[in-house]
Design brief:
- The complex is a heterodimer of chains A (210) and B (266).
- Chain A has 210 residues and is mainly alpha-helical.
- Chain A is built from ten helices and no strands.
- Chain B has 266 residues and is an alpha+beta fold.
- The chains are: A mainly alpha (210), B alpha+beta (266).
- At the A-B interface, helix 4 of A face helix 1 of B.
Chain lengths: 210, 266
Amino acid sequence: MIVKLAAIFFSMILVNNYVLVKFYGICPFLGVSKKLDSSLGMSAAVIFVMFMSTAVTFPIQIFVLDPADLGYLQTIVFILVIAVLVQFIEIFLKKYMVSLYNALGVYLPLITTNCCVLAVTILVVDDYGADVQTLGFAAAYIESLVCAIGSGVGFMLAMCMFSGVRKRVEVCDAPGPFKGLPITLVAAAITSLSFMGFGGIVESLFNVTL
Amino acid sequence: MSIVLAVVLCTVVGALGAVILVAASKFMAVEEDPRIEQITGCLAGANCGGCGYAGCADYAKAIVMDGVACDKCAPGGAKSAAAIGKIMGTEVSAVAKKAVVQCQGNKDNCKPSYEYKGIQSCAAAAALYGGPKDCSFACAGFGDCVKACKFDAIHIVNGVAVVDQDKCTGCGACAAVCPKHVIMIQSAGPDKPVVMCSNCDRGPVAMKECATACIACGMCQRNCPSDAIHVTDNLARIDYDKCTGCGTCVAKCPKKIITYPLKKNA
């Protein structure tokens, strides 16, 4: 079990990186990666929100939507739940954990309905929803939570790496039409290409099939 | 039948969320000082960061919560400082801050020491032998400050940065990016003189490097009636706490580099 969880965790960071391999959350990836400290703050907020929303939406899918045969309502219900949850977390942090609010506060509203958060909750149901029958709910739930944290850490890795790349790109003497966003997109494409090299590494490392 | 269930489910989820949020905002409400919002309205709203805080709202918060001085908003100037003072109940007299480029080494005054063909940025050029001018303290002239300025108030004229005093708000963004540190934020007002040079080389060397260099002759120091100007590290420096703006140094400087850059038509 632990081996499988570790494999899930690392595959979400390297092989199935949400930003660089699956191309979710490109908007914050390009928007907030200019400085290392802001990209760190944003990623911390993303990890936090991904974990919390998966923790809430996975049981909703298993215990509410699936028994009622309303799987097609997944998107709309998840968006609703995530939006409410993020708003609630913001209010809660402001009241009881001011230091955490100061660190994450600016970024929380930005990711309320960010696509990578929604993608994690939906893909986790696709990947581990079936495990509820075979392994039981608790095991599937833990798998999905580990997967959510791994996705967030993968997001953080991509953001921090890319903020370093961007620092170099900013001072480079790019041809006129490429200056600014175009050269940044080219750099992002090359960074993403480099992540393709991780394909299959986790399966062979942990000797499991995911 | 299933459509009814779907509609009911969505409604229930939405209503539940609404109830939770309303309850949360009621029971976990954090009381914010209404003055914070008022002060944010008085600030310039440029979010330039010149005050040293993360934005206008952050600075407004610092004024109310930590009692920070209310004259730090450079773009808002004396007007917003007075408005904030009124809200906070304190009187302030703020002098408008302006940026001054302490270098006049343009292409005529200061010859290039080598031909620079690299990245067109002061930061990159300054890393190569202190910049492509004879004087290694001079404005590099590639306009990193121009890019940093949000108010279109600084421009490269004949190879040296020149501040448009009408547009300058004194936010300090240019001074922060200048790798040569030749931009100073003058907060003493237009009646005080400024040494328009940053060269710290010894006199004879400085004289060869630039036609408008401070040669550290000490004429200003000897003649100042209020002991406000001193030559340290081969460069005249003014102590604005003591300076009365009498103009003796301006008249005595043999290189005519001490001027009133902020005075209109001076």
